[in-house]
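Journal club side-thread
Mid-discussion, someone asked how the predicted structure for our own chain would compare to the paper's figures. Pasting it here so we can look after the session.
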Amino acid sequence: MTIRLATLNDIPQILALVADVIPIMKTAGNFQWDYDYPNKQVFTDDINLNQLWVADITGAIAGVAAITTDQDAEYAQAGLNPDETAIVTHRLAVNINYQGRGVAAALLKQAEQEAIGRGIEILRIDTNIANQATQKLFPKLGYVLAGEISLDLRPGLRFLCYEKRLNNNLNQ
């Protein structure tokens, strides 16, 4: 598996991945994504900003994540300071044919490498309260639950916000 920056040529595979994942998310009660979001324009913007990463397994896009410094003001609901510079992972998804193979963990390790490379000690991520897989994964990777939040972008849904501070995890 290679973790690399996405290119515009990856968009068809990324959109197919998302289209395959959305029905599974909805079946699990996770309505974080729909057929309007995330979309081609969102991923194109991420690529143009050099913040969209993919897990590539022999030419197949096994996973995708936007690794940014963009965090929602609502993180303050979880006691986090959104004015602190942090690497924030958004739009994390794994191809249904590659789930359970460490793809999400590899993308989150890339977020950590980005943080280290930029001298940023804080990583943050949020997930829908119905997403049991990420709620198990994040603590395994050193993320600590900060609290539950709502997001204006997704009214009526609840999210769990996690944080990892690298200065406390340098030897792990």
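Post-session note: DSSP finds four helices and seven strands in the chain.
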